[in-house]
């Protein structure tokens, strides 16, 4: 009986941690297939998930987001919060936004996890109209 309870507890822990997105993720450009940056995703006290650029792997032409149109305009890309306000709903994280510092555009965002990979979808309006990047877990 004790072994059964222990096995069940570890199985539940594995399932719960599988669905989490907190941690550091290597962003992969969906067009060039090159690693661009490391984004650290974390949960704030409001219960929502946010992500900031913690490392740049490719030096941008401009280290500041001069094309951003909100409070991030002119701010350094390194340290910039690019994911804001995601909520966990079943197996996906949704309801927030993601900003592309290269274009300054902000999109609705949905993230799903598959093992050591995140499928990060940015879209306008309907989720069908958008694009998905696959990010890889990193230490």
Structural account:
12% of the residues lie in helices and 48% in strands. 18% of the residues are buried. The model is unreliable at 3-17 (pLDDT under 50). The protein has one domain (20-138): Lipocalin, CATH 2.40.128. The protein is globular, with a radius of gyration of 17 Å. The N and C termini lie far apart (37 Å). The protein has one helix at 2-18; strands at 23-28, 35-43, 49-56, 81-89, 92-100, 105-114, 117-123, 130-138. Strands 1-2-3-4-5-6-7-8 form an 8-stranded antiparallel beta barrel. Residues 23-137 form the DUF2147 domain.
Task: Reconstruct the topology from this structure.
Elements: H1 2-18, E1 23-28, E2 35-43, E3 49-56, E4 81-89, E5 92-100, E6 105-114, E7 117-123, E8 130-138
Protein name: Signal peptide protein
Keywords: Signal
Organism: Chryseobacterium taiwanense
Helical stretch count?
A: 1
Distance between the termini: 37 Å
Structural class of the secondary structure composition? mainly beta
Q: Which architecture per CATH?
A: Beta Barrel
Adjacency order of strands in the biggest sheet: 1-2-3-4-5-6-7-8
- Beta-strand portion reads over 45%
| Top-tier CATH class | Mainly Beta
Number of domains: 1
Number of strand segments: 8
Task: Report the order of strands and helices.
Answer: HEEEEEEEE
Low-confidence stretches: 3-17
User: pLDDT average, as an integer?
Assistant: 87
Task: Kindly provide the radius of gyration, computed on alpha-carbon positions and rounded to a whole number of angstroms.
Answer: 17 Å
Organism: Chryseobacterium taiwanense
InterPro entries: DUF2147 (IPR019223)
Protein name: Signal peptide protein
Keywords: Signal
């Amino acid at each position: 009986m004790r072994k059964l309870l222990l096995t069940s507890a570890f199985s539940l822990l594995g399932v719960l941690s599988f669905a989490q997105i907190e941690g550091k993720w290597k962003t992969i450009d969906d067009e060039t297939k090159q690693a661009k940056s490391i984004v650290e995703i974390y949960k704030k006290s409001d219960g929502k998930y946010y992500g900031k650029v913690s490392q740049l792997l490719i030096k941008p032409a401009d280290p500041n987001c001069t094309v951003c149109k909100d409070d991030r305009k002119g701010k350094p890309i390194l340290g910039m919060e690019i994911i804001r306000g995601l909520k966990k709903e079943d197996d996906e994280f949704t309801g927030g936004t993601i900003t592309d510092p290269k274009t300054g555009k902000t999109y609705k965002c949905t993230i799903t996890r598959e093992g050591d990979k995140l499928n990060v979808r940015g879209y306008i309006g309907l989720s069908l109209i958008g694009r998905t990047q696959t990010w890889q877990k990193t230490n």
